[in-house]
Write a structure and sequence with these properties.
This protein is 28% helix and 24% strand. The strands form two sheets. Strands 1, 10, 11, 12, 13, 14, 15, 16 and 17 form a nine-stranded mixed sheet that branches. It has an eight-stranded parallel sheet with strand order 2-9-8-7-6-5-4-3. The longest helix has 24 residues.
């Protein structure tokens, strides 16, 4: 059963059923155009991360603006993107298990597909799947440059893994996956730059060793919304994976710019629309949007438009508001826009985007890869 959208094209934004995932189309289009302009000025490519938006509709708009393709974390996400017309997808993650690898290889018969590895046995398994389907798959070596997650140690270990890929019958060595995830939300501008400079030294060392071994490194790909300008200006990375930039969230807004100001390069375009469902006390109200409408892994949502109103707590289907003395007169049925603390998992809670411009619903996009966790 397909879940019906919470809105109809042409209706007033205030009439949208809630909770609903709103996209301010003017802000979204500004962000996509600005990133395309910035990336072009650095002379590098952009492959936005679809784990943020999980939508072929968003991906097509990013590619129309100049992106070379998309990256994602799961085979299921890649399948949705390819079905939606995206022809160049990097699964920027490790994919393990025969069933998943068979799906990946089948997908590689329909589009250009890449994947990342940090294990020699996984290289053999990917090649075997590619052989079964008569497919060719580009494989990147992921190196750990400070995130402490997946990835081999930079340098010799990466070179040895690249040699295995290069020798495999149905694989091609594509380069390096080099993403410093821990740096994305370091608040200070200078501290974020230091983290990427350290990461860059590790990447350059690995690229140099690959070259000495006769292995061309077509791609050095990575970077996120919090640091992409540092990777882009390094002369080391040639592809950026920033994804959250198109929507933004309350956590990214806490990062500081070079002059100590809050990060405002991109506009907030993603909101959760909620309705006041209870007003039991003068200083307290309750929304119909709780854990199941907005992720709180990076903190509680912020209120977008109302002064002296704080989102103070959430349960499954309720969001509690504290109304200060300067709060407006809030009534039952009023609509409130929330700024999610973390856009990626918030998107994964919804089936539809409601695209709004000038207070009117202009478009509806399905969150096609919602729940595509395998």
């Amino acid at each position: 059963m397909t879940i019906r959208p919470p809105a109809e094209i042409g209706m007033a934004a205030d009439d949208v059923d809630t909770p609903a995932l709103l996209v301010d189309l003017d802000a979204f289009e500004h962000n996509v155009a600005l990133m395309a302009k910035m990336v072009a000025s650095f002379g590098v490519n952009h492959r936005p991360h679809a784990k943020t938006h999980k939508s072929a509709d968003v991906a097509r708009r990013q590619i129309a603006a100049g992106a070379v393709g998309q990256c994602c974390q799961k085979v299921g996400e890649a399948e949705v993107l390819v079905a939606g017309g995206i022809q160049d997808v990097l699964v920027s993650n490790q994919i393990v298990g025969t069933r998943k690898l068979n799906r990946l290889a089948a997908l590689a018969k329909q589009a250009r597909i890449g994947v990342c590895v940090d294990d020699a046995g996984n290289v053999e398994d990917i090649n075997a799947a590619a052989q079964r389907f008569g497919a060719k798959i580009e494989v990147l070596v992921e190196i750990d440059i400070g995130a402490g997650r997946c990835g081999v140690v930079p340098g010799k270990a990466a070179v040895e893994l690249a040699k295995r890929i290069d020798a495999a019958s149905n694989l091609s060595f594509g380069g390096l996956q080099a993403y410093q995830g821990r740096a994305q939300h370091i608040r200070g501008h200078g501290e974020r730059k230091v983290a990427i400079d350290k990461a860059g030294a590790l990447v350059k060392e690995t690229v140099d060793q690959l070259s000495a071994a006769g292995l061309a490194c077509r791609l050095v790909t990575g970077a996120g919304t919090g640091t992409f300008q540092f990777e882009a200006g390094s002369g080391i990375w040639n592809e950026l994976q920033a994804g959250s930039y198109c929507f933004m969230d309350a956590d990214y807004a806490l990062n500081l710019g070079e002059e100590g100001e809050f990060f405002d390069t991109f506009r907030q375009s993603l909101f959760v629309l909620a309705t006041v469902m209870s007003h039991p006390a003068k200083d307290r109200a309750v929304l119909d949007a709780g854990h199941k409408a907005a992720s709180i892994d990076s903190g509680l949502p912020r209120i977008a438009d109302l002064a002296d109103v704080t989102y103070s707590g959430a349960s499954d289907e309720h969001g509690s508001l504290v109304l200060g003395p300067g709060a407006p007169d809030i009534k039952l049925g009023d609509k409130v826009r929330l700024i999610p603390s973390h856009c990626d998992p918030t998107v994964n809670l919804h089936d539809w985007y409601v695209g709004v411009r000038g207070g009117v619903v202009e478009t509806l996009w399905p969150v096609g890869a919602r729940g595509a966790a395998f």
